[in-house]
């Protein structure tokens, strides 16, 4: 209570930054100006790409997660720039309506910059979605979740490793959950339907959200836009960078308080109050949303087998995790042809799930299939040990981030639409991303 306010970094003076609202076909030009102080809010640790002597400690570059943009407007990590500089980016907004978000992407320090507060929502709309008459205006809320360690002085604390062999913390978890930058906030809602754009902006935490009223979420969209039909879900699971577009109905709950929970910790209160507004009447939910035509696996011209999290013990550094067995600075190996369809089979060699994200594209999940880790380790042989599991309905829409489960090969199918050039793909667990679990890819 007597503590000074917590210092955060943000965009336009707020964290999360302002919600950017775009319409399909109406491009944006955004000048991202670095007005940060010259000293980092958090200690720069000795992560693999964090503190290199020719690089300023404070640098940033913005990336719109899920946006199909050209290679020079995507937030290439090594294009991060120092305070006093700016970069003008062009966003065509030539893609379907979706819940996107923007955040820092500076090489080696993304985990620190996002942790400090550099993230915000970016909602892309289109006329077909508008025609569905989903709750909008004040009845539509972006809800960005992340966890932070708040120290006794009320300030952000980023965990530091005390293990000399492992100079970085492999997953930073907090003791406090922020909802739109606030700790356990409340919002007054009317007894009607609301549309919530749930975004997991945490460094490492995954969420299993539910409502204390035991009402379901009606999920209408995932990372890259609308699902074919609304889905009732008691729990919504989100790994880092995943999004869920949901409708929640507060009708009949006048005077009550509904909590958003993770899984039992309250994160946010909805206080239902009838303000006598005639708009409080809920409109009906559409039964069909948007077709998601399946990409035919037979149209794929190439399948890439890509390992996730191979330990690199060459230098005795057991904490380095790689994608495809390669480091960030190794020559480019993923080089899809423009407009070609590829299957990427993500072979998880670790004991944990990794949220794998590809820039530029949207994709579909084909299946998760169990495999024999021993055969891989011994002979580099990919031996499946059972049938593949197709994605459940809430994961069967367009995605840009996929949970690669342990003991599984997670197979996705991608049509590489976009402008040729260099982009990145990476684990969105930010500690992993900053420590070699990121690779360039080149669209030819
Ligand atoms: Cu959320 Cu490389 O991005
Ligand atoms: Cu992205
Ligand atoms: Cu990871």
Q: Could you walk me through the main structural features you see in this protein, from its secondary elements to its overall organization?
A:
The protein has 444 residues and is mainly β. It folds into three domains: 112 residues, Sandwich (Immunoglobulin-like); 144 residues, Sandwich (Immunoglobulin-like); 147 residues, Immunoglobulin-like (Sandwich), CATH 2.60.40.420. It is 5% helix and 39% strand. The protein has four helices and 28 strands. The strands form six sheets. Strands 7, 8, 9, 10, 12, 14, 15 and 17 form an eight-stranded mixed β-sheet that branches. Strand 18 and strand 19 form a beta hairpin. The radius of gyration is 21 Å and the shape is globular. The termini are far apart. The mean pLDDT is 93. CU-O-CU linkage binds next to strand 3 and strand 27. This is Spore coat protein A.
What key attributes describe this structure?
444 residues, mainly beta, Immunoglobulin-like, 8-stranded mixed sheet, 4 helices, globular, binds CU-O-CU linkage, binds copper (II) ion
**Count of domains:** 3
- Structural class, from secondary structure content? mainly beta
Using only CA atoms, what is the Rg?
Answer: 21 Å
The CATH homologous superfamily of the largest domain corresponds to Cupredoxins -  blue copper proteins
Bound ligands: CU-O-CU linkage, copper (II) ion
Main sheet? 8 strands, mixed
CATH architecture of the largest domain: Sandwich
Counting DSSP H or I runs of 4 or more residues, the number of helices is 4
Per the principal axes of the C-alpha atoms, what is the gross shape? globular
CATH topology of the largest domain: Immunoglobulin-like
Average pLDDT over all residues: 93
Low-pLDDT residue spans: none
What fraction of residues sit in β-strands? 35-45%
Share of helix, binned: under 10%
SS elements, strand count: 28
CATH class of the largest domain: Mainly Beta
Distance between the termini: 56 Å
